[in-house]
Write a structure and sequence with these properties.
Radius of gyration: 16 Å
Helix content: 40-55%
Distance between the termini: 12 Å
CATH topology: Rossmann fold
CATH superfamily: SGNH hydrolase
CATH class: Alpha Beta
Order of helices and strands: EHEEHEHEHHEHEH
Number of helices: 7
Number of strands: 7
Strand order of the largest sheet: 4-1-5-6-7
């Protein structure tokens, strides 16, 4: 059995921004591990601030795929969507990450992109552009999920994620409540697709 039971790649959503504990970022990854009964020594959180899909492919994916973890999470893409966005590159990178982790034998989960543009202090014309990008990204993600066999937590379709209490004041990162809700959603998603208990 791999020493790592849960590996997660991605950006600051994975890093845990918006949820601090004892002066450090906490977030949904350790919250999920607690719910699953996985010891902290068996978690590998590779999430990094401002990570794009390019950075995940080059800097995080090799280590994540080598873990051989039973569970692998992927939450990345918002930094692509709000900055240097190229749809073809985005689609290629998302497909690469989901396929590689699925091929490594992990049960792979990811999440859709909620209406973050609604919360950003940007001109309305740019907000409309961002929403078009987020909609397109969700279509790409759904296709990649289908092709790779990964599992999708569709928070974009969940009205609960429109509540203010789910988000930090910056509008980009979940609040502690949001991180807890995300962890619970992932736990339920995993339970739907596995009948095997993870060894703690």
């Amino acid at each position: 059995m791999s020493a790592v039971e849960l590996v997660v790649v991605g950006d600051s959503f994975v890093e845990g921004r918006g949820d601090t504990r004892n002066g450090r970022y906490h977030g949904w990854v350790p919250r999920l591990a607690t719910q699953l009964g996985v010891r902290s020594s068996r978690i590998r959180n590779l999430g990094a601030y401002q990570a794009t899909t390019d950075r995940v492919v080059t800097d995080q994916l090799p280590a994540a795929a080598a873990c051989g973890a039973r569970l692998a999470g992927v939450v990345v893409g918002v930094n692509d969507l709000v900055s240097d966005y190229d749809e073809d590159r985005f689609a290629r990178n998302i497909g690469t990450v989901l396929n590689a982790l699925s091929d490594s034998g992990s049960l792979v989960f990811t999440a859709s992109y909620p209406d973050i543009p609604a919360r950003l202090p940007v001109p309305e014309s740019f907000r409309d552009l961002l929403r078009d990008r987020f909609d397109a990204a969700n279509e790409i993600l759904a296709q990649s999920v289908s092709e790779s066999g990964a599992h999708l937590l569709d928070i974009a379709a969940d009205p609960g994620w429109q509540r203010d209490e789910m988000w930090s004041p910056d509008g980009l990162h979940p609040s502690p409540c949001g991180h807890q809700e995300f962890a619970s959603g992932v736990r339920e998603l995993i339970a739907m697709h596995t009948a095997t208990t993870i060894a703690a």
